[in-house]
Amino acid sequence: MNNLYSIEVEKPNGEMQSLKEFEGKPLIIVNTASKCGFTPQFAELQQLYENYNQQGLEVLGFPSAQFNSQEFDNQEETMTFCQKNYGVTFPMFATTEVKGPSANLLFKFLTSEQKGLLTGTIKWNFTKFLVDREGKVVKRYAPQTSPEKIEEDLKKLL
């Protein structure tokens, strides 16, 4: 796992997608949950996506049920919830593990590049990573950090 673009992730329909498709674009990568206190952050993430997608920004959402099972069991229900309640149009991927021995390669890569405050693992839903156009993870944001607070850092990458 040399770089971000060598990783493949699973789409909601089960197909695999290479992150190489996002090469050259700034990214916000976030582990999400539909039944979490931070779920309203979907609206702010969507707003950033709408404001900056024309300049290349992609927001990539990865649902996870690893924290108090705060995600729907059914993948379709997760996608419908995000679209219906928060108007999410940015790419969402299959429910995935983001910590532990079965963690998705993407989250192993992200956490190896940007450790958390007390631990290298993902501590909760809505941990956000800002990635530059070259695939370098430039910053990690805590779950409680509002996506609006990412905007200034994001503008530097556009």
Automatic annotation (TrEMBL):
Residues forming the catalytic site: C36
Transmembrane segments: none
Cross-referenced SUPFAM superfamilies: Thioredoxin-like (SSF52833)
Protein name (Swiss-Prot/TrEMBL): Glutathione peroxidase
CDD domains associated with the record: GSH_Peroxidase
Family: Belongs to the glutathione peroxidase family.
Keywords, ordered alphabetically: Oxidoreductase, Peroxidase
Keyword Oxidoreductase among record annotations: yes
Gene Ontology biological process: cellular response to oxidative stress
Keyword Oxidoreductase assigned: yes
InterPro entries xrefs: Glutathione_peroxidase, GPX_AS, Thioredoxin-like_sf
GO MF terms, alphabetically ordered: peroxidase activity
